[in-house]
Amino acid sequence: MNEKEFQLEIITPQKVVYREDVVSVTAPGKEGYLGILANHAALLTSLKPGKIEIRKAGDLIPVTVRVQSGFLETSNNKVVVLVDKAEIEE
Description:
CATH topology: ATP Synthase, domain 1
Oligomer: single chain
Radius of gyration: 12 Å
Shape: globular
CATH superfamily: F0F1 ATP synthase delta/epsilon subunit, N-terminal
Strand content: over 45%
CATH class: Mainly Beta
Order of helices and strands: EEEEEEEEEE
Strand order of the largest sheet: 2-1-9-8-5
CATH architecture: Sandwich
Number of domains: 1
Distance between the termini: 27 Å
Structural class: mainly beta
């Protein structure tokens, strides 16, 4: 199955925590979790502290990144997450 990918960047004031091509993202929005796939409509929303789940093509287990509050923007098949703090869970 050919899964469409888009670029995801998770950025804190200190560094870029994550930058990869992915097939889906689930993020903790202020009004509840939201899912993003390729070709998502343009969106700017605030995030609450929680977990971002990232799925790359062919992976069965998602990558999980714990984040503090911040913002998520999606436009032109790119998602940028700006947060105060982010840590990839092992």
